[in-house]
Amino acid sequence: MKLPFRLGTLRQWHWISSAICLAALLLFSVTGITLNHAHQIESRAEVTEIETSLPAPLRTWLQQNPPEDATLPPELADWLEQTLPVSLAGRTPEWDDGELYMGFPRPGGDAWLSLDLDSGELLFEDSDRGWIAYLNDLHKGRHTSGAWSWFIDLTAVACLVFALTGLLLLLRQASHRPFTWPLTTLGLLIPLLILLLSMH
Would you list the domain boundaries of the chain? Predict the structure, then answer.
């Protein structure tokens, strides 16, 4: 069978795509194992709690000028960022009867704050689940940035190019390697058989 590609061109696409997705393949392979055995890998969160109160002048000002829904007065935002280890950029506040709640989810951890304008009490909690949880969340794209989402998509495209060019190279070399198609077929059948046999 004659293909409309030169072998050198296929090889170039194959090694270039493998070089591009090498680091990501290593990451996703390792985290595939850790995710598959998540119940066996203990992860104890490291929790940091902060309890404090609004300064009296700021609390009085906020009570006289109640914030509107989905807005955060600059004076309050400045005080929160100076008091807590958080960045409020791009965060949407949630107000409910004079109580503020904000969540700060991230890969491998989570944080939240709750502020009662009547009493001025502020509660803040930060949970860090460690590096394995961080890498697992990167694998799933959980609480990551838009840039990371694009990186996952581009890595998937590079992996497709790597796999398809590898298949075409196998096709060109199959006549010299008699075990090519039995092994390729086996690679396709094993996951299919496992799925079929494990169905209830």
Answer: 7-41+139-198, 46-129
